[in-house]
Specification:
Layout: E1 2-9, E2 12-21, H1 23-39, E3 42-53, H2 55-70, E4 75-78, H3 82-91, E5 98-99
Parallel strand pairs: 2-3, 3-4, 4-5
Antiparallel strand pairs: 1-2
Helix pairs in contact: 1-2
Amino acid sequence: MIEVSSKVNGDVNELALVGRLDVKAAREAEEAFTKAAEAAPNVVLDMTQLDYIASAGLRALKRLRADVKANGGTLVLRGVQDNVMEVFEMTGFAAMLTFE
């Protein structure tokens, strides 16, 4: 289960992700990611409370990244927990994402 909250501030849409981005949550997350990319060109994902990410979650992130780039914006991931960062590193996603 995942909770996604959104806050737009100028040209930045900040999404806070809480819970697990697993197969069941990926569809809900993708819908939120699509809306986020449409609402503002730049997207920040606050992952301080994201405990887990599965391959379906990685696909959702990849699509979000493509949507943001197509809009001329940037995608930044903030507060990534060690276990989630490990997944990004093992899958090669760490090299294509921006972290703060």
